[in-house]
Amino acid sequence: MASSYTICLLPGDGIGTEVTECGRRVLDFLSEQGGPSFDYDVRPAGYDTFLEVGHSLPDESLDAAKLADAVLVGAMDVAQIPPHGGDPLGGLRIGLEVSASVRPSRTIDGIIGPADDIDCVVVREVTEGLYSRDEYMGDDNAAYAVRVVTREASTKTARMAFAQAVARQEIYGRPSRVTAVHKVGVLKLSDGLFLEACADVARDFPEVIYETANVDACAMDMVRNPGHFDVILATNVFGDILSDVAAGLAAGLGLAASACIGDRWAYFEPVHGTAPDIAGKGIANPCATILTVAMMLRHLGEDESADAVENAVYAVLAKGTVRTGDLGGVATSAEMTNAVLTALSTK
User: Regarding the domain delimited by 114-250, which CATH topology (the fold level of the hierarchy) does it fall under?
Assistant: First the structure.
């Protein structure tokens, strides 16, 4: 008998609401084909929610996220939310006690990108660092931001990275590598603590190659030799930047999926933004969301469905006859989703 799950949907703002609906169509199609079934709890969050109720992440939305089996999140216009309006993504990360962001990037057949051999995962801590939201104005007319790095959070993130490396070893049948990035020459205490935590975890995984790299050198090597990297392990800001570098080297943000995973809860979101210039036109690329749905399915233990969804997206992209504007085509969001569903029905 197929399993049943409750999915909390936070559609967000702009194209987030549109592509999230495309992801829902894929889940519904799986159910119709005898796969797992899904009940949806749709809740508000984001800038539009702030305008409507005065807060970007109502308590009821966070409570619903905690009760669900998984959370699917659309892009949110966090830049426009004033400080008193809350931080919906930060609130989710802290409220759901996630340990790390996991963002895979890989070369895709049919998509021409700057790198033809990138296949890596960026795992980054997402609750602290320079994004710890501890900022203040000093008496000297200067603004200060506090960078927080704890051993506990660093250890959890490192364990997530090494778990990803072990999984990749099983998939590819070869030793995998974890590269911990830092700027310890300048950030001696904070990055020093981060590297200590990473090294402690590395000792528990002797089968995984472990190395460290300065963040600037890592960025350069990602461009010069992207095939070197398997799993990149980073603090919050460094990982945020490097994960976009990886996405750009692969296929762009229109195909970039991600997950924020903790010991108890997890949420899943495409990497791209709200794209206000095309919002409401029905032409956004839904593939990042659909690939994010595949990550969610895998997290739920539905590996067969996850593989089917990923393979359907890759088959459509490789064929190249249906593509949205960001990929050089003219297809609408619905047409791209229909093409994925057609490919999915042949699996």
Answer: Isopropylmalate Dehydrogenase (3.40.718)
Choose the catalytic residue: 41, 87, 244, 307. Answer: 244
Give catalytic status of residue 131 as yes or no: yes
- Of the residues 131, 210, 267, 314, which is catalytic? 131
Catalytic annotation, pick one of 48, 240, 267, 326: 240
Nearest residue to 212 (alpha-carbon basis) of 227, 193, 234: 234
Which residue out of 116, 216, 263, 303 is catalytically annotated?
216
Is 204 part of the annotated catalytic residue set? Answer: no
| Number of CB atoms found within 10 A of residue 166's CB | 15
Out of 40, 41, 183, 221, the active site residue is: 183
179-207, pLDDT tens digit by residue? 999 999 999 999 999 999 999 999 999 99
Closest to 265 measured CA to CA, from 98, 123, 148, 141: 98
CATH topology of domain 1-99+254-347: Isopropylmalate Dehydrogenase (3.40.718)
**The pair of three-digit structure tokens given for residue 197, joined into one six-digit string:** 């935590």
- Tell me what pLDDT residue 251 has: 82
Known catalytic residue at 40: no
Q: What's the distance, Cα to Cα, between the start and end of the chain in Å? A: 20
Three-state DSSP class for residue 162:
helix
pLDDT at 69 over 70: yes
244 is catalytic: yes
Parse the chain into domains and list their residue ranges.
1-99+254-347, 114-250
Indicate if 240 belongs to the active site: yes
Residue 79 scores a pLDDT above 70: yes
Would the CATH topology of 1-99+254-347 be identical to that of 114-250? yes
Question: Alpha-carbon distance 207 to 275, whole Å?
Answer: 43
pTM of the predicted protein model: 0.94
